[in-house]
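Hi support team,

I'm filing this because I wasn't sure whether my run with 2-phosphoglycolic acid finished correctly. The job status page said complete, but I'd like someone to confirm that the output block is well-formed before I use it downstream. Pasting the exact inputs I used:
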Amino acid sequence: MNKIICKSRQEAARVGALIIARQIWDKPDSVLGLATGGTPVGMYAILAEMYRAGDLDFSRVTTFNLDEYYPISRENEQSYDYFMWKNLFSHINIDKSRVNLPDGGAADPLAACAEYERKIKAAGGIDLQLLGIGHNGHIAFNEPAQELSLRTGVITLTEQTIKANARFFASDEDVPKKAVSMGIGSILQARKILMLAFGEDKAPAVKKMFSGAVTTQCPATMLALHPDVTAVLDEASASML
Ligand code: PGA
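And here is everything the job wrote out:
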């Protein structure tokens, strides 16, 4: 795993944006795997700025998001669908028909998961997958467990994740208890992976990720099995390395 340690999270966001921009410059019809959460917000703002400046064209880009709460409607302001439009898609020239997120409102979520995997395959696979990391080492909503899902599936969130995400909701009770998430296998099939982690609170998870051992109890350690991962860190998240 490559790592780039930046002075600040602002600088790290700029480095992350340049890695995504380079991907689009090299391959204008790239398939991007995108992530939500606090971490990528600054980077998305920089990508939108690059689009406004005429430096980036998203018209041929296809996106697949990692995960979505379940159940939740697309109109719900806490949905990841809403997040992506607010923080990125409505500021760039993305073609709406090329935007994909797991369906948090599917009547048959398992069929919807299989369909999501099929769509990723039909698009030619993911060229560059963006990831954040949870305090417990989760990637997407793949929580530490005895076994990890290989494919997109329905996941029960841990108490720790519900608490971490409660900051976006009125209370802990309002956080959905389940999510639809791409699996570890879906993530590892991306051609390249870009991991962003900022802040001292992420330092223990980042340390584990670079420990050299692989364990389902820290799903991010699975990234060691991938040949092309770049972790862009600020000094605080890298402080235990
Ligand atoms: P965060 O979440 O960016 O809000 O810290 C990352 C994650 O849980 O994967």
